[in-house]
Amino acid sequence: MEKRVLFKGIWLPLLLILPQIVITAVFFFYPAGQAIWQSLFIPDPFGLSSRFVGLGNFDYLLSDPYYRASFVTTAIFSTLVTLVSMGVALYLAVLADRLIKGSGTYRTLLIWPYAVAPAVAGVLWLFMFNTRVGVVTWYLGLLGYDWNHVLNEGEAMGLVVVASAWGRISYNFLFFLAGLQAIPKSVIEAAAIDGARFWTRFRTIVFPLLSPTTFFLLVVNIVYAFFETFGVIHTITSGGPQQATTILVYKVYSDGFVGQDLGSSAAQSVILLVVVSILTIIQFKYIERRVHY
Amino acid sequence: MATVTLTDVRKSFGKTQVIHGVDIDIADGEFIVIVGPSGCGKSTLLRMVAGLETVTAGEVRIGGERVNDREPMDRDIAMVFQNYALYPHMSVFDNMAYGLKIAKTPRAEIEARVQTAARLLQLEPYLGRKPRELSGGQRQRVAMGRAIVRKPAVFLFDEPLSNLDAKLRVQMRLEIKQLQRDLGVTALYVTHDQVEAMTLADRMVVMNAGRADQIGAPLDVYADPRTEFVAGFIGSPPTNFLDPAAVGGQGARLGIRPEHMRIGPAGSGRITARVLDAEPLGAETLIHTRLPSGDLLTIRQDGAAPIPGEGDEIGLAWEAADEMRFGPDGRRV
């Protein structure tokens, strides 16, 4: 059943959506437009003049092996962050959903990490895994493992994935828990009487009924992994070692603001914008079809 | 096909006891209706038989075997829920086949059993549909079908008709009764609707605040209620209660069914009352009256009989044999 509010004139609805439009215009359309414009120029090193190069910036980028490597890094990073944060969140939500006593406490504790800003989360994890004074590093040392994410590319990637996924687990947990609690209890009971034990029920009833939630989280988490993890990477690895953790959005920053190549940086933003748009369109077009609402 | 036996079954949630020792002996193939007002513990009792609630004390036996500690899936039962509890993402066929698939029934047999059930329930045209594309009555049938295909020993019904409109409810009531007769499966049916209880039950269990006040055939319970609660709950309009002081005799409360009272001119009969209102229903008329003591009485008379005017004084008469007298504890004297 569709519920629609009908307005008589055009002015009230326009007024009501105006704040959103203004915010989107100022913080998205304007900078996005500027990025597209800038991506067509190469400024001189002192920013005094710029030369029109057409699609030259894009041409250069796509043939740059470092840029292509960054694509692969981003793919690995965002897949891992999404899998880890959604997987752990689902597991915790299933456990919390079964709890009757004290579920409020668990829920509150599990929601806390969401209040921690990505950059702060990065610093927290950095302290724990600091190669000289980190407490986890020290315990790993006792076990005979020499942790050094400053030099080891795999360890660096692992650390930024865990730090990025950590705060995200709370967010996903909330949605999964709400999704689980929205499933009528009698449906689960009917399945139990039909002979399905816990795991079968989860696989054939619970997970399919959770699919709208899962789908929503998938889209949101991939966008998160693409953009909002900047703070974590910046504080922990600064894209290193050897660009092992330089995801696309970090490269936009390091090439533009550190390398002062504003033209290339703008071109990278445009490519990033296109990539995320395509990913979202694919998700809505193909995955959504299998979702049961 | 199995017997079901409850022996001194009790249930507590924390420190609150909600079922205070219920004994029921259900014969193979019998249709038992548990009826009572909301909150009397009837659904809890059913859920204990299903294995969806733990049994605090006492014993539940199905087919002679103690099932207190068995999981729902190991009790050989099927349950129809009030909200149907269909799997929303599966077709009607898959909903019915779900239990059989889990039991690893061969594909051909699943197909055959679902088809048979679908024919029985007139669901054949809808096997490919999702539950949301069905009407309330059809969903109800799918829920029944899901119970039938597994050929369980016991059917459990938890207020299965209360989400349907009045007309459909009457129709489904007949279908359920017919189906249970044809299949010969023991059935336990919970409802708050005493009409459903009267029409469906071989024997009914009238529950009151966690106790089984009376167990018996519907007409026996109606004619011979053992407690004041049962007399008041079974029958519509309900039994009239008055203070025996006005008419003499023993007991703390006197109950007389509306159809057992006769109206005469003022001064005649055993007691005088004032007419408040009359409801002509066609075949019968309900006359609401008030006694000088303040007790309200309803009289049911034939639709053709003259209707007294509002505010008239009338005399009420009844046979001594129709009196139901109850002690201060609510039990029949």
From TrEMBL, chain A:
InterPro entries: MetI-like (IPR000515), MetI-like_sf (IPR035906), UgpAE/MalFG_permease (IPR050809). Part of the ABC transporter complex UgpBAEC involved in sn-glycerol-3-phosphate (G3P) import. Probably responsible for the translocation of the substrate across the membrane. NCBIfam families: PRK10561.1 (NF007852). GO terms for biological process: transmembrane transport. PROSITE patterns: ABC_TM1. The complex is composed of two ATP-binding proteins (UgpC), two transmembrane proteins (UgpA and UgpE) and a solute-binding protein (UgpB). Residues 71-283 form the ABC transmembrane type-1 domain. CDD domains: TM_PBP2. It is found in: Cell inner membrane; Cell membrane. This is sn-glycerol-3-phosphate transport system permease protein UgpA. Belongs to the binding-protein-dependent transport system permease family. It is a multi-pass membrane protein. The chain crosses the membrane at residues 12-30, 71-96, 108-128, 156-183, 204-227, 266-287. It comes from Rhodovulum marinum. Keywords: Cell inner membrane, Cell membrane, Membrane, Transmembrane, Transmembrane helix, Transport. The keyword Cell inner membrane applies. GO terms for cellular component: plasma membrane.
From TrEMBL, chain B:
Keywords: ATP-binding, Cell inner membrane, Cell membrane, Membrane, Nucleotide-binding, Sugar transport, Translocase, Transport. GO terms for cellular component: ATP-binding cassette (ABC) transporter complex, substrate-binding subunit-containing. The keyword Zinc-finger does not apply. One of its GO terms (molecular function) is ATP hydrolysis activity. Pfam families: ABC_tran (PF00005), TOBE_2 (PF08402). Residues 4-234 form the ABC transporter domain. It comes from the Bacteria. The keyword Metal-binding does not apply. Transmembrane segments: none annotated. InterPro entries: AAA+_ATPase (IPR003593), ABC_transporter-like_ATP-bd (IPR003439), ABC_transporter-like_CS (IPR017871), ABC_transpr_MalK-like (IPR015855), ABC_transpr_MalK/UgpC-like (IPR047641), Mo/tungstate-bd_C_term_dom (IPR008995), NA-bd_OB-fold (IPR012340), P-loop_NTPase (IPR027417). GO terms for biological process: carbohydrate transport; glycerol-3-phosphate transmembrane transport; glycerophosphodiester transmembrane transport. Belongs to the ABC transporter superfamily. This is Carbohydrate ABC transporter ATP-binding protein (CUT1 family). It comes from Rhodovulum marinum.
